[in-house]
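Box S1 | Example of a co-folding query
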Amino acid sequence: MTARIIDGKAVAAALRARIAARVAALPYAPGLRVVRVGDDPASGVYVRNKDRAAQQAGLDSATIQLPEDTSEAALLDVVRRLNADPAVDGILVQLPLPAQIRAATVLETINPAKDVDGFHAVNAGRLATGQKGLVPCTPKGVMHLLAAAGTPLAGARAVVLGRSNIVGKPMAALLLAADATVTVVHSRTLDLAGECRRAQILVAAAGRPEMVKGDWIAEGATVIDVGINRLPDGRLVGDVDFAAARGRAGAITPVPGGVGPMTIACLLENTVDAAEARRG
Ligand code: NDP
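Box S1 (continued) | Returned holo structure for NDP
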């Protein structure tokens, strides 16, 4: 079997077009503010891409750039000012933050109604308890990709590789909410290959280049590769050995061009959701 490629660029472009149409129908431009401390080069590219995509969708988007030596108190002041600003619907503080700033304290200071990254404990709790809230962008993007691939979720055996707060755990919660039978595997799992082999849906988010081998994939499975890993030779690869997995999976996302484009599209979607929920 040669797997169908799930084209994240195309799915993201369609989602962005739907978002632009929603924005065009609003009497205001939803406001997104990305706060960046220091100039980590990897996040620089990402922040610029976010700004461009947001502006193309008609959002009022801006990046607030702060110096590397910004204190935690100064950053909290910025967040509180954005919390109070009625024109701001979404606040995103770009991670990682410099060592003098506690990321958890900053994330918990963001108004949950404007927490478009979905990382606040209130939003994590809402997701865990099946209430409406803002959902982390990457796992939300994976759900859009599974829908676009036509993968049935109800009752399906889904395996999530990774249990981080930003990908693995919310991913598992979303799949469970969609009635999948969910297993979460991690670095202490005894038989990773065996657990993955049982998956009809495999979502890999471990951050380990090509750790998922071809023979870990069940024939016909849908494989979503969240990993983004830069190899010493400069190549970008996922957590899945793509060439080998493609010979067994039914459908698979490439890296790049799979989950990555969905994350930004879902950030825009969360901003419009937050605007509509807050402004009525
Ligand atoms: P974390 O490092 O926070 O979490 C990785 C998870 O994978 C942990 O739960 C860890 O287990 C597990 N893990 C790591 N190594 C192994 C191993 N050898 N065997 C089994 N489990 C393992 O990463 P993130 O969740 O933040 O990100 C995961 C990947 O997704 C990264 O490559 C990241 O770059 C990418 N990413 C991509 C995005 C996109 O837009 N496409 C957005 C966000 C992330 P344990 O908990 O036991 O340590």
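The radius of gyration is 19 Å. The first helix runs from residue 8 to 24.
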